[in-house]
Specification:
It is a single chain. Helix 2 (41-57) runs antiparallel to helix 14 and helix 14 packs antiparallel against helix 15 (404-421). The protein is globular and about 60 Å long. The chain has a single domain (7-226, 345-426), classed as 5-stranded Propeller (L-arginine/glycine Amidinotransferase, Chain A), CATH 3.75.10. It has a three-stranded mixed sheet, with helices on one face. It has a three-stranded mixed sheet with strand order 3-4-5, covered by helices on one side. Strands 6-7-8 form a three-stranded mixed sheet, sandwiched between helices. It starts with 6 loop residues before the first strand and ends in a 6-residue tail after the last helix. The chain has helices spanning 29-33, 41-57, 73-80, 89-94, 131-134, 137-147, 202-211, 226-231, 257-267, 283-289, 315-318, 321-332, 346-349, 377-390, 404-421, and strands at residues 7-13, 61-65, 107-110, 120-124, 154-157, 172-176, 183-189, 219-223, 240-243, 246-250, 272-276, 295-298, 309-314, 337-343, 359-364. The chain is 32% helix and 19% strand.
C-alpha cells in the first residue's frame, strides 16, 4: 500500500549515558586516537539533540531512537558462559558501548517507491565485523519493529547471515528525482583495506537488495576503493553522500570511479555528480574533517522558488581551510546545494561519528510511524530535561568499566528516558 504523504524522516540516535572512548573500532582513526580520553555523555547527548532541533527548525521531519540497554547482560552471558574463566578486557568494555547512537548503521532502508510490494523495507544490520557493534542488532530490531509496526506500510527484516558483514545505511545511498519517486539504490561494498577490515560484504548488499524486492535495473553495486578503506574510510559515508539527484563524493571514494559514474548516469540521466579532487581536499583531510559524513537535506519550498538543499557538516569540516575553500566554490556554482550548516557534534566526532552517522533516513508518511519515535519541541524539551538531570557529566578512563555507582547511574538514566517517552516495552 502506497504511503499517503511520504517524506524523508531522519531518525537520530539519542547518545546514551554510557558514551565513552574505549577505542574498540579497528580502522576508525578518530576512535583509536581518542581511546582512553575522558568522555562527556551529557554534552554529547545535548549536542545530538541540538542537531535534531536544527533540522526541525528547517521545517524537516525528525525522529529518534533511544539508547540500547547497557550493560548488555545478554551479550555478557553469551561470552562469559558460567563466569569461571577470564573475560577479555575489550569485551568487558564492549557491553557498555554507546555505539548504537550511530543509527546510520542500524539498518538499510528502501522506500516504498523502490520495492515491488509498495512497502518500505528495512533490514537490520548484523555489524558482525566489530564485536561491540555486533551485539546491537537484537535490541535494534526490537526498536525498529516497534517504530515501524504498521505492516501495511513497512516490512522489517532480520539481519542477513553473519557470514556476510552488513553495516546498514552507512554503505548505502539512494538517488531519486524526489523522496517519493522511484530511485536508484547504490550499495557500496569493500574487498580490501590494507591493515583495516572491509566491513561491508558484497553478498550482504546483494541479499538486502533481494529481500527488499528492488528493481535490478535500478540497483548499482559499487566497490569502495581500497585506498579509502586503508586511509580510514571504514564506511562509504565517510567519503560519499547523496540526496535527491545529487551525489557528492571524494575523487578516491570508489574503485573504477569513471565506470561507476557512467553506469549511474545511464540509470539516472539527470544525476548531478560533484567530485572533490584530492588536489583540493586530500583523502586524509576528508576523513579527518568528515566533510562527506554530512547530511544533504531537501529543504521545504516555502516561497515557490524551490527549496534547494542544505549540507549539514561538522564544525571540524567548516574550520578546515581546504574544505572551506572547496565549499565556497560549491556554493558559488549556484547548484542545488544552496547553504552549508555547521553543527557541533564534537563528542561524537571524537569517537568517529559525524552528523550522517547519527541518522537513519526513512521515507514514509509520518502518520504510519509510531508517534512516540517522532520528535517535536515539547518532546525535545522533555528529552533535554532528562539528559540534563540524569546523564553523567563526565566519564574518566579510570572509572571504566563502571563501578557500581556509575553503573547504577547509567541504567537509571536510560530508565528515566524510557519513562518520559512512554517506551517501557524497551526496558
Amino acid at each position: 500500500m502506497e504511503p499517503v504523504n511520504p517524506v524523508e524522516i531522519n531518525f537520530d540516535g539519542i547518545i546514551g549515558p554510557s558514551h565513552n572512548y574505549a577505542g574498540l573500532s579497528l580502522g576508525n582513526l578518530a576512535s583509536a586516537s581518542h581511546a582512553g580520553d575522558p568522555s562527556y555523555p551529557r554534552a554529547a547527548a545535548l549536542q545530538g539533540l541540538a542537531k535534531m532541533r536544527g533540522n526541525m527548525a528547517m521545517g524537516l521531519a525528525q525522529g529518534f531512537f533511544v539508547p540500547l540497554p547497557r550493560p548488555n547482560l545478554r551479550f555478557l552471558a553469551e561470552i562469559a558462559g558460567d563466569g569461571a574463566g577470564p573475560v577479555d578486557d575489550r569485551l568487558a568494555r564492549a557491553i557498555w558501548s554507546a555505539s548504537s547512537m550511530w543509527t546510520a548503521n542500524a539498518a538499510t532502508v528502501s522506500p516504498a517507491a523502490d520495492c515491488a510490494d509498495g512497502r518500505c523495507h528495512l533490514t537490520v544490520a548484523n555489524l558482525v565485523t566489530m564485536p561491540h557493534r555486533y551485539q546491537e542488532w537484537p535490541d535494534t530490531l526490537r526498536q525498529l519493529r516497534l517504530a515501524f509496526a504498521d505492516t501495511a506500510h513497512f516490512a522489517v527484516h532480520d539481519p542477513v547471515p553473519a557470514c556476510f558483514g552488513d553495516e546498514g545505511a552507512a554503505n548505502h545511498m539512494r538517488l531519486a528525482s524526489s523522496h517519493a519517486a522511484p530511485g536508484v539504490e547504490v550499495f557500496v561494498y569493500g574487498k580490501a583495506g590494507g591493515a583495516f577490515p572491509a566491513r561491508q560484504h558484497d553478498q550482504a548488499s546483494m541479499a538486502v537488495a533481494r529481500r527488499h524486492a528492488l528493481d535490478w535495473n535500478r540497483v548499482l553495486m559499487v566497490e569502495q576503493s581500497p585506498e579509502a578503506i586503508a586511509a580510514g574510510a571504514f564506511h562509504n559515508d565517510v567519503v560519499a553522500v547523496s540526496n535527491g539527484n545529487v551525489l557528492l563524493a571524494h575523487e578516491q571514494a570508489f574503485a573504477n570511479r569513471e565506470e561507476v559514474y557512467a553506469r549511474l548516469t545511464a540509470m539516472m540521466p539527470d544525476v548531478q555528480i560533484y567530485t572533490v579532487p584530492a588536489s583540493e581536499v586530500s583523502l586524509a583531510e576528508a576523513i579527518r574533517t568528515y566533510l562527506f559524513n554530512g547530511q544533504i537535506l531537501s529543504l521545504p519550498d516555502v516561497s515557490g522558488g524551490g527549496g534547494g538543499m542544505a549540507l549539514v557538516i561538522p564544525t571540524e569540516a567548516w574550520e578546515s581551510k581546504p574544505v572551506r575553500g572547496w565549499l565556497d566554490t560549491l556554493l558559488a556554482s549556484n547548484g542545488p546545494i544552496r547553504t552549508v550548516v555547521p553543527v557541533d557534534v564534537r563528542q561524537s566526532m571524537a569517537n568517529g561519528g559525524g552528523p550522517a552517522c547519527l541518522r537513519l533516513r526513512v521515507v514514509a508518511d509520518p502518520a504510519t510511524v509510531d508517534p512516540r519515535f517522532l520528535l517535536d519541541e515539547r518532546k525535545a524539551d522533555a528529552i533535554e530535561r532528562v539528559i540534563s538531570s540524569h546523564w553523567p557529566e563526565q566519564i574518566d578512563p579510570a572509572h571504566f568499566p563502571p563501578d557500581a555507582a556509575l553503573a547504577a547511574a547509567i541504567v537509571g538514566a536510560r530508565t528515566a528516558l524510557l519513562d518520559v517517552l512512554e517506551l517501557g516495552e524497551l526496558a
